[in-house]
Amino acid sequence: MHIFFCQALGAPIPLLRAHAVTCTQCACRKFVLYQYRDHVLTCKKHTEAIAGHDHIMNVSAQLARNSGLRIRINCKVATTAADSNKQGDVQAMEFGIPGYDDLVWDVSLVSDRISSSTQHGLNGKLQLSDYLNARARSKIGKFRRDDAAKNIAFAPAILSVAGKIHPEFLRLLGVG
Q1: Pairing of strands 102-110, 152-160
Q2: Where are the beta strands (DSSP E) in the chain?
Q3: In terms of C-beta density within 10 A (0-12 exposed, 13-18 middle, 19 or more buried), how is residue 66 classed?
Q4: pLDDT tens per residue, range 113-139
Q5: Thinking of the domain 47-173, which architecture would CATH place it in?
Q6: Contact 36, 124 (CB under 8 A)
Q7: Residues 6 or more apart from 66 whose CB is under 8 A from it?
Q8: CA triplet 87, 28, 25: central angle to 5 degrees?
Q9: Helix or strand or coil: residue 113?
Q10: Is the pTM above the cut of 0.85?
Q11: What is the per-residue pLDDT for 131?
């Protein structure tokens, strides 16, 4: 809970101060850990990022199951066209969107702070750009056309580590 409040207020996280002072390198070997933690929460080399992603994937799948949908998650989700073979995280079978058989969504966590910049002094600063929409556009470009060719609708499930939720994921959850 302490980490969440520090994160929400933009305050340094005490547990990471020592890593920042000693310039501990991230497991990805590209960046130094700093006191705001965002890189640790979104870097795919950290178990925290994987655990966060999987938690959101599992909870969203369970919400869909609770509403009566048949769900496939992770490795059981249908892949896109044979040449690209991409796979989303959750597939709702017979979702009920006209013109499509199923709905696939792909979860992605993004940082509210710049956390992977190679430009000196940027890491830890708040993102000023439309980072949720940028990640959604990236996911849509990766999946939507190939999924549509298989009569599968696609929705990006984008969240920030501070709790911001992209509008398409809010609509999917039924609260947007």
Answers
A1: parallel
A2: 70-73, 90-93, 102-110, 152-160
A3: exposed
A4: 655 545 555 555 556 558 889 889 999
A5: 3-Layer(aba) Sandwich (3.40)
A6: yes
A7: none
A8: 155
A9: strand
A10: no
A11: 83
